[in-house]
Design a protein that fits this description.
Helices cover 80% and strands 0% of the residues. By secondary structure, it is mainly α. It is globular.
């Protein structure tokens, strides 16, 4: 797999759509399958994100960058929790789930538009210097 950036984006889209489906599901077995799909997409996304970070970060900066990644992976979900709580207060828990999924998918697409290097990222050495900035 050379296109780790594309894998991350696709996984985030799958996660968002699975969570959206979960929020709209009216049948427990379907909801559980959608949660499993979302969890799988999240795990695969995390692996590819770390691959990209390890490849584009100079050796002398690995510790600093990985500490920032750790802070982001701990703090980011708390922002999602706040969004979900606010959305649930407005429209209930199902509303919070499906709107959160759509918001995640939209954010992934917006990120690709603003930072096209993420989508174009190629890990092959012959592809040139690894960069996700643009």
């Amino acid at each position: 797999m050379h296109r780790a950036g594309r894998a991350v984006v696709v996984c985030v889209l799958v996660w968002g759509m699975a969570i959206t489906g979960f929020g709209l599901a009216g049948w427990l077995p379907a909801a559980l399958v959608l949660l499993a799909v979302a969890g799988g997409a999240d795990v695969v996304s995390a692996v590819f994100r770390m691959v990209i970070v390890q490849q584009v970060t100079p050796d002398q900066m690995q510790g600093r960058v990985n500490s920032l990644i750790c802070a982001g992976t701990q703090g980011g979900p708390r922002l999602g929790d706040a969004e979900a709580g606010a959305a649930a207060a407005i429209g209930g828990p199902q509303f919070a789930a499906w709107t959160g999924g759509l918001l995640s998918a939209a954010t992934a697409l917006l990120t690709c538009w603003l930072l096209p290097g993420i989508w174009r990222y190629d890990a092959r050495p012959e592809a040139g210097p690894a960069s996700v900035a643009g």
